[in-house]
Request: fold
Amino acid sequence: MHSTEKNLKNDGAGKARRLIRLFLSTLYISAFTFGGGFVIVTLLKRKFVDEYHWIEEDEMLDITAMAQSSPGAIAVNAGMLVGWKVAGLPGMITAVLGTVIPPLVILSVLSFFYAAFSSNRYVILFLQGMKAGVAAVLVDVVLTLGAKVIKEKNVFYDLITVAAFVLAFFTDINVVLIILGAALIGTVYALIVKAKKKEEKTE
Reply:
């Protein structure tokens, strides 16, 4: 009985430590990341896939797709899904708090000094420099996640990727519509493949 209670305590302590690490990680990433949701997604991957090994790379790719396809900020959506995967509902709440607190605090402070910041030459130069860094991180996102899709060696997914890029880059079609269209096509394709595999098994 004592050993069972001890295991339960250790299990509870382990969950608590994981939640603390989850909160501190998302808080740190959100506080020191510039450039929007895709940049945060990259850092979430490095932290929870490469460093902690809490999430598989395939799952992170799915999380990125769902975060982008769902309404709301990509960073919050991704943090929510990562938290859910890591520790269920408590993890989701913890990750959302860690992701939301830094921008709320920073923007609240900046709002009082916006007039001075917006016309300051050094602040403008600083922001221009950050744009270059953000561009590099976004390229890293494309190469990392895109390489995962290419490794699957599925011609259909490759065609969807190319078609989505062409539509987004060379046309005025809303990116949201492109993403939803790609998601719909991918869902139909997955259902067809699943049905074919089921038929093959029955035969």
